[in-house]
Amino acid sequence: MSNLLEKLPAAPGERYYPQLDGLRALAVATVFIGHLIPLPLLQKIVGWGDIGVVLFFCLSGFLITGILLKIDCRELTGKAVAIRSFYVRRALRIFPIYYLTIALAVAVGYGPVRVHLLRLVTYSLNVPGLPPTDNLWAVAHFWSLSVEEQFYLFWPMVVLFFPRQFLRRFLVALIGLAFLYKLSLALVNASYTLVFASLLGCLDSLGLGALLAIGWSEAASRAGTVRRWVRAGMAGGAVWVILTVVRIAVDMDANYAGYLWVGVVTFAAAAVAFTGLIAFAASGTQGLVGRFLENRFMVMVGRISYGLYVYHFFMRYILRWMVSRQYLHLSSLWNYAWLSILMSAVAAVVSWHLIEKPILRLKKYFNYGVPANATPA
Prior knowledge:
Number of domains: 1
Number of strands: 0
Order of helices and strands: HHHHHHHHHHHHHHHHH
Oligomer: single chain
């Protein structure tokens, strides 16, 4: 590992990391297993897909913070331009297929989307205190997109305006607050959604990725940062594996009913493990793990992972509708699973080439000092 650390690549925002696309592929694969594959044991191992969401959050925290840290402007006007560019670029990446999907669902009269339309278009599915969003069905997974958008609302201002010398301490406090928030609610048996799906409940995963980005941005100590995170990731992974075995042995359900505190510790350990894995992958490892993450198939899946995530849950309900109208006959859950995966892949590939990729070319008109060949976040 020492030879690898001597040749560490640049900070996030300075280059493209193919192995991080490989991690995106792993994340979306765990979501597919949790939501579509009818194997209860595998579904428990991946937390019914929530483990993949934790990895997505860690990646977002790392990449977004890395890009923001590269914006070097002290004048208020320059920071305002940078923030404007950030939001425009985020909108170009996220809004098109998200709102297109919602529009299509409304057009065909899909009930859950029509009922919760305002919450969906404002990315507020997970906001505590608002009326509950039950029976979301095909858009149940959109809560995580709400978390991401809410994070983007305040995080650029924090990174650009908060004193850099205190940013690491602020993040550590934020991560600790998020963990204590979840643990305290878990101990009083709050709802799973309130504990894990609110923005504050996800700030530990986002924050750990951001914390890695801060260490990564300091070139002189980058090698030490990677060593520490890889070691921490291995420890977190061990805790995650042990608790997952316990979960299977005790037969805890998808919402950790009666064992919410176990869920809190499990997801925290997974977030540490994934942050260590991100550090390892971003360092450009050429071993077996590196070759696996940067092979063409993994990179391709990683690039279309957003579309795969947005579309996949809809496919199962489309298939059910087709069966109910006798347009199709499916005799097993496995038929639903493989067809859902195939349809998701086709939709995501078409979406990438016809919608997402052309729109992303517009990013070049909204530069904030980050090179055009940076990792697409």
